[in-house]
Specification:
The complex is a heterodimer. In chain A, about 30% of the residues lie in helices and about 30% in strands. Chain A is α/β, with parallel strands linked by helices. In chain A, strand 4 and strand 5 (about 75) form a beta hairpin. Chain A is globular and about 50 Å long. A six-stranded mixed β-barrel of chain B has the order 3-4-9-6-8-7. A six-stranded mixed barrel of chain B has the order 13-14-18-15-17-16. In chain B, strands 2-10-1-11 form a four-stranded antiparallel sheet, with helices on one face. Chains A and B meet through helix 2, strand 6 and helix 3 of A and helix 13, helix 19 and helix 22 of B. The complex binds adenosine-5'-triphosphate (ATP) and magnesium ion.
């Protein structure tokens, strides 16, 4: 049994209902979930099964309709808007399908954007080196390929030394070779920084690089697998 | 009727972007309103005046004489170019109303002959019986100020004699539309009125049997007024004529001219500013809309809409904005016009004042405004026409930013969010520049409307506290021997008495000439002083002449030059005098010399025209009563009354004007800042939402957008000050005339207030946009590609 102090995330009976007029969409129908420090978790599931909704609530971007989520000793479901912002700022690194870089800032500056407001950041150069982009530091996003942009996004996410790294389809917009590079970057920083990492993906092959795999369906967790042997991203067949 | 889908889209876009549309429409409306107001008021004032002059046969040439026989009139009428001539008696009298402590005067004018010139417009009652000795008609403003009407008695002092005159009617005259009393700076209907009396009564009162003191002439169309004046001056010379004047120098006419000139300046300056700013706003907003709708444009073209049809769609959108603006502008212009007409009614006495609602003017304003809006749209719409459908359907090529100005960053110690602000501003230099210019225009309009306050303070300070420091002035009907000073000294309440002498003269220099009064003062005057450029009092020259700067400029003379002085009184000698120095002063034109020297030129002995007095405040009422009954007194001036009237009148008019200008400037500032921020937000919404995801607070994210606004608003300040200073300088120059000169001083607080108002307007816009920043949808931007 893992030590209780080792638990980073704890969710119990988490629900989310979207209301638009008379229509109700139950995106999450009661999620119970835990994540340990430094764990690398892959989340799979069909489209519309509630993966992004779950990740957004855990990341403090959205609010639950019911149930509780704890991050360490903070109950996220009880925080107000300002406190959630502070939570994201201090503890969470995000990586998204469409990178969401600031187009008017160079790679280096995009990373600095975060290090300037973080409590214990690493150097921006260091973060870029971790994802192998030290040579492209002075390029603007428009001058970088999709994979490179995504690696900048990862560097930006990890530069604050976050406790958790949340990635929503980080390879969704990339070809396989580039996708592997991005995954390598993720696993590498997971190891180097020790951040608990949650990765949503549609590519079931990626499951092999995880410590644990969770499958969503219709707003519930329907399957959980623990990998005893982790593969390297380069070993994964796409 | 079926509305085409594109038309429906126009209406939907208007509704969706209503706030931006309204902001642009208001700026256009300000242009339309000022255009209509300025042109309308100009047309209304000049046409009303022309019509009034025509109907009431306003004279073209005016001349004063001391006393001329009526027989002279025949000779005057013979002058070539004279259509009609009328001999009148025009004399000053003093008011002796029981309830009125302060001195007031009336100008007696003999009633126009039937079919004569300067006919009256009777408002109430009837004209006096030509044979009645004591019947009069009084001017409208004066009657209103004293609540007098037909049947009331008016006690006056005529030539020192007290009489009770009976009012039979109340009238207006084209000669006194702007009824300024002698020695006054602003019309004061309580202290000055015009009284028309039968000629025979005035002849008797002023010992002018068979004689006259004033001539008015109507010229034949096309006659040369200068020739007529020349001929007339030759005829009147023997009878104490001091030089005839044309309409341009007639007080009432000249003040109306000054007002018309100011309106004309407004028409030339304000509407173009608004239309320019509006065109820039249209361009900014439409460019952004077209960028956002790139794919739709591609789609429309792909399914067979012609480039023209799509372009027309956007032009229609702009035309509708213009139509909204024109509608508001028409309403505002008409309303402001009627307000202005009321101000005019208070200031100028016209029998009628129609604010013309000339459809042509409205049509012209509409066309100009539509043209400005379309001009703003054209550049943006050109890109619609040029865009090939295939290119339009693919995502736009990414915006290229450049790394530049690293030193700025280091200098300002910018954070990355600051770098975002700087790069974004520099990425669209045209938009940044035009927004800056727009805000600067708002600042400039305020500077241009606020500076006169400081200038008026300067005028008051120089005129009343440094130069004309006397409390009261007595002007004699005819020059008195010097000993009259001692009589004045003995009057109750008088603490200091200082004599002055005034002689009409024509001063000329190299073909330029000006007729005015030369004032003689004691060598070291204490009450009425002449100041040098450093505002230090100047001693009066024993030989030579001090000219006011304004006069020196008109005559183009410099200190040390010789001028020819033709005295228009007494023996009418002509001498050459050296200009010893120049003086500053803002009221009228001035020439000064030592009183003894002036009297030696005249050769009539030691005479004085009046005395300047310092009065014990506590005994002012006693003094007024005594001064009134001194037979030689023709006029009593009281500085404090003049000053308070001056201040009150200006305060009233300037307050209205400044309010209007603050609103106009606010409209520009809000319109520009609001549109600028909406566009910036639309472009950067995605980035800003991403920042929120990264853990930036609402305040920090707003800071990025507001940083851009603040930069534009700050850059606009010095530019606005500069433009405003330029406009103000041009205004000061155009306001100045022989009547008064407007000192051009722009106090520092003018810039400060202008900037504060504009910053406040910017804050209002920022506040309006704040909600949109706080409600940025973080999750939405994560789901979609740019
Ligand atoms: N803002 C919203 N309003 C209404 N319904 C929503 C909203 N966001 C998500 N949903 C619904 O909630 C359900 C879960 O959505 P979610 O985005 O979490 O799915 P997902 O598992 O991430 O799917 P995908 O793999 O396609 O990204 C879906 O049925 C979706 O339609
Ligand atoms: Mg999803």
């Amino acid at each position: 049994m893992p030590d209780a102090s080792d638990i980073v995330f704890r969710a119990t009976g988490l629900t989310k209902v979207y209301r638009s007029g008379a229509l109700e969409v139950h995106a999450l129908r009661g999620i119970d979930f835990q994540a340990r420090k430094g764990e690398f978790i892959v989340i799979l599931g069909p489209s519309g099964s509630g993966k992004s909704t779950f990740l957004n609530i855990v990341g403090g971007l959205d609010r639950a309709s019911g149930g509780q989520v704890w991050f360490e000793e903070h109950q996220l479901t009880a925080l107000d808007e300002g406190q959630l912002t502070q939570y994201r700022r201090d503890h969470v690194g995000f990586v998204f399908q469409f990178y969401n870089l600031v187009p008017s800032l160079t790679a280096h500056e995009n990373v600095q954007l975060v290090t300037e407001i973080a409590r214990h950041p690493m150097r921006a150069d260091e973060a870029l080196a971790l994802v192998g982009l030290q040579d492209r530091a002075n390029h603007f996003p428009a001058q970088l390929s999709g994979g490179e942009q995504q690696r900048v996004a990862i560097a930006r996410a990890i530069a604050k030394n976050p406790e958790v790294l949340l990635c929503d389809e980080p390879t969704g917009a990339l070809d396989s070779a580039t996708g592997i590079k991005v995954l390598e970057a993720l696993t590498q920083v997971n190891r180097a920084v020790g951040a608990t990492t949650l990765v949503i993906t549609h590519n079931a092959a990626i499951r092999d690089i995880a410590d644990r795999v969770i499958r969503f369906a219709d707003g519930r967790i329907v399957e959980e697998t623990v990998n005893t042997v982790k593969k390297q991203p380069s070993e994964v067949a796409w | 009727m079926v509305i085409s889908p594109l038309r429906r889209k126009v209406l939907r876009d208007l509704r969706r972007l209503w706030a931006q549309v309204l902001a642009i429409a208001l700026v256009l409306a300000a242009g339309v309103a000022t255009l209509i107001l300025g042109n309308g008021a100009y047309a209304s004032l000049s046409e009303t005046r022309a019509h009034y002059y025509d109907e009431n046969r306003f004279a073209d040439v005016f001349a004063d004489v001391t006393r001329a026989p009526r027989a002279l009139l025949g000779e005057v009428a013979e002058i070539e170019g004279v259509l009609d001539a009328e001999a009148r008696i025009v004399k000053l009298g003093l008011l002796d109303l029981p309830g009125m402590v302060e001195p007031g005067s009336v100008l007696f004018v003999s009633l126009p002959e039937t079919g004569g010139l300067n006919r009256l417009y009777l408002r109430q009652g009837r004209l006096p019986d030509p044979l009645a000795a004591r019947e009069i008609v009084v001017s409208d403003g004066f009657a209103a100020a004293h609540r007098l009407g037909p049947g009331d008695l008016l006690p006056v002092l005529m030539n020192g004699q007290r009489r009770d005159l009976t009012i039979t009617g109340v009238a207006l005259s084209p000669e006194f539309i702007y009824a300024l009393g002698p020695g006054q700076m602003m019309p004061d209907p309580r202290r000055f009125g015009v009284v028309w009396a039968p000629r025979s009564a005035l002849e008797a009162a002023y010992d002018l049997d068979g004689a006259f003191s004033n001539l008015v002439l109507k010229l034949a169309p096309g006659a040369n007024p200068d020739r007529v004046i020349e001929a007339l001056d030759r005829l009147t010379e023997r009878y104490g004529g001091v030089g005839a004047t044309g309409r341009a120098d007639q007080i009432s006419h000249a003040f109306l001219d000054a007002e018309l000139q100011a309106l004309w300046a407004m028409v030339r300056v304000l509407p173009p500013i608004f239309l320019l700013v509006a065109a820039m706003l249209v361009n900014m907003t439409l460019s952004r809309l077209i960028t956002l709708e790139r794919e739709q444009i591609g789609l429309l073209k792909a399914i067979g809409y012609s480039s023209r049809a799509v372009a027309q769609h956007y032009v229609e959108f702009v035309l509708l904005i213009a139509v909204v603006g024109i509608g508001i502008g028409f309403a505002a212009g008409a309303w402001l016009g009627s307000e202005l007409a009321q101000i005019y009614a208070r200031f100028f006495t016209f029998p009628y004042l129609v604010f013309t609602r000339d459809p042509q003017l409205y049509g012209l304003a509409a066309v100009i405004t539509l043209a400005a809006a379309v001009a703003g749209a054209l550049y943006a719409v050109r890109s619609v026409v040029k865009l090939p459908p295939a290119v339009a359907m693919s995502p736009p090529s990414p915006v290229v930013y450049r790394k530049r100005g690293a030193w700025v960053r280091r200098l300002l110690n910018l954070r990355q969010t600051g770098v975002m602000v700087a790069r974004h501003l520099m990425r669209w230099p045209f938009r940044t520049a035009s927004s800056t210019l727009g805000v600067a225009m708002a600042v400039a309009i305020l500077v241009a409307s606020l500076w006169p306050f400081g200038s008026i303070d300067r005028m008051i300070d120089v005129t009343f506290f440094r130069s004309e420091r006397h409390d009261a002035q007595i002007v004699f009907g005819t020059p008195e021997p010097l000993r009259a000073v001692f009589a004045a000294q003995d009057m109750p309440g008088v603490m200091v008495a200082e004599p002055f002498r005034q002689v009409a003269a024509t001063i000329s220099h190299r073909g330029r000439e000006k007729t005015l009064a030369i004032t003689g003062r004691p060598a070291e005057p204490r009450l009425s002083r002449v100041l040098d450029a450093g505002l230090r009092p100047m001693p009066m020259p024993q030989a030579g002449l001090i000219l006011s700067e304004a006069l020196a400029k008109t005559l183009q003379v410099r200190p040390g030059d010789q001028v020819t002085v033709a005295l228009q009184e007494g023996r009418r000698s002509t001498v050459t005098l050296r200009v010893s120095a120049l003086s500053v002063g803002y009221m009228g034109l001035g020439a000064a010399m030592e009183i003894g020297a002036l009297n030696r030129l005249m050769g009539e002995g030691a005479l004085i025209s009046g005395v300047n007095l310092m009065i014990d405040d506590a005994r002012a009422a006693e003094f007024y009563a005594a001064a009134r009954t001194t037979p030689k007194t023709e006029l009593i001036g009281v500085t404090s009354l003049m000053l308070s009237r001056f201040r009150a009148t200006l305060a009233e008019n300037i307050t209205v004007m400044v309010t209007v200008y603050v609103v106009l400037a606010g409209i520009i500032a809000i319109g520009v800042v609001y549109n600028f921020s909406r566009i910036a937000l639309s472009e950067q919404g995605r980035e800003l939402a991403s920042l929120r995801v990264l853990g930036f607070t609402n305040r920090e994210v707003s800071g990025v957008l507001f940083g851009e606004l603040a930069t534009v608003v700050l850059l606009a300040q010095p530019l606005g000050w500069l433009i405003g200073y330029g406009i103000s300088a041009a205004m000061a120059a155009s306001f100045s005339s022989d009547l008064y000169r407007v000192p051009f001083v722009v106090e520092r607080d003018v810039f400060a207030i202008a900037s504060l108002v504009v910053c406040a307007a910017a804050l209002v816009s920022a506040w309006a946009i704040r909600g949109r920043i706080n409600n940025l949808d973080m999750i939405e931007v994560l789901k979609t590609r740019e």
